[in-house]
């Protein structure tokens, strides 16, 4: 069986834990729990005729008090850059984190997740900014951990990208 490590990376309180809970257990809680360190979950998914055991590392959010522990990223086959669409600065944080992650583990598949799409009335991220990232060959998916919108799609897309990267890498 294929096993792949995925890291959830982003600023504090962007919905990383809620996205994992929605994906793994199909639940959403209004109660906020800050992640301390890292929380690890697993889920078996099927992509085409392949079964993939996803090991999901929900890493604490980065803020002015706590930096992302880059050692948590070792062995990751892919990652999500999770942004809270209602807080513009979380995108700026994600952009700087993406550079640091790439310096640490190299170029691996990742997806920019624009979370909290159920609150688009409060959205602070302009479409033009997202479009410019897509022009750089980034994949961006709008999600809502609350309504489950885009969650399965995001995990399936990243898993597919990781499998494709595995298929083209030298033995």
Could you characterize what this model shows?
With 171 residues, the protein is α/β, with parallel strands linked by helices. It has one domain: P-loop containing nucleotide triphosphate hydrolases (Rossmann fold, 3-Layer(aba) Sandwich). 32% of the residues lie in helices and 26% in strands. The protein has helices spanning 16-25, 89-105, 127-135, 151-168, and strands at 2-10, 38-47, 50-59, 78-84, 110-115, 140-142. The longest helix has 18 residues, at 151-168. The chain is globular and about 40 Å long. The two termini are 17 Å apart.
Describe the oligomeric state of these chains in a short phrase.
single chain
Structural class: alpha/beta
| Number of helical stretches of at least 4 residues | 4
Radius of gyration: 15 Å
Order of helical and strand elements: EHEEEHEHEH
The share of residues in extended strands comes to 25-35%
Task: Please give a quick description of this structure.
The protein is of the alpha/beta class and 171 residues long. It contains four helices and six strands.
Overview features:
single chain, 171 residues, alpha/beta, Rossmann fold, 6-stranded mixed beta sheet, 32% helix, globular, P-loop_NTPase, Small_GTP-bd
